[in-house]
Fold this sequence. Notes:
This protein has 203 residues and is an alpha/beta fold. Helices cover 45% and strands 16% of the residues. It contains nine helices and six strands. A six-stranded parallel β-sheet has the order 4-3-2-1-5-6, sandwiched between helices. Helix 4 links the parallel strand 3 (75-79) and strand 4 (98-102). Helix 2 crosses helix 3, helix 5 (108-118) runs parallel beside helix 6 (129-140) and helix 6 runs parallel beside helix 7. The radius of gyration is 16 Å and the shape is globular. The mean pLDDT is 90.
Amino acid sequence: MIVSIVGSWKDEQNQQWNLKDKNNFADACSLLGEAVVSNGHTLLVGSESQRCADFYAVSGALKWLTSSSIQNPRIMLLRPTDEQFIFADIRTQYPRLFTVRESHESKWDLTGAFQVKEAHTIIVAGGGKRSYQIGLWGAVSGKRVIPIGSFGGAAKRLAVLFSRTRASWQENVPTSDELGQLHSPWSTQLLSIIKEVTRLNYL
Length: 203
C-alpha cells in the first residue's frame, strides 16, 4: 500500500485554519512515517519543507529503515518536472530506500493531484488549503482518507465534513465513531487507533 502523509503547521495559517498543538505535530508525523514503513508499506511525500508533515514523516521512516535490513525502496518522492530533487542529500546517502515519480506538471499545486493518483491512502494532519484540497480530491477519487483532527487545520475541517456527509461516502473515509476518535488530542493511544483505522497492520 502507498500511503501519503500530507499537512503542515504554519504560523501564518493559524488564524484562518485554527491550528493547534504545534509542540506535538512534528513528533506525530514522524511516528506516522515510521508506522507506514515498519508495517511494510511505502511512504509517498511531495515536500521537504520543515513546516510540512512530509519532512517529519521521512525522518521517522528513515529512523526505522536505517536500523533495519531493508534494502528496497520504501519512500517514494513526487516532484514537478521542473523542480530539483527533494531530499537530495539524504537520497544520496540512502539511494536504495528511495524511488522517484514525476508529476508531469510544472506547479506544486497541480502536483497534489498526482499525489492523489499515486496514493492508496492519504493521512491528513493539520494543514491549510492545499492539504484540504488533496484530502477532498482523495475522497472524491475513492482513495481512503484519514483526517487527524488533533492539530486542527484542514484535517479537522475534513473530519467535520465527512461526519456531516457520511452517507455520501463508501469505505474510503472512516466511520462516524472513528472520525470522532480522530478528534482526540495526540497520544500514543491515538497512534494505535490511527494504525487500525488506516489498516497499516494489514498488507
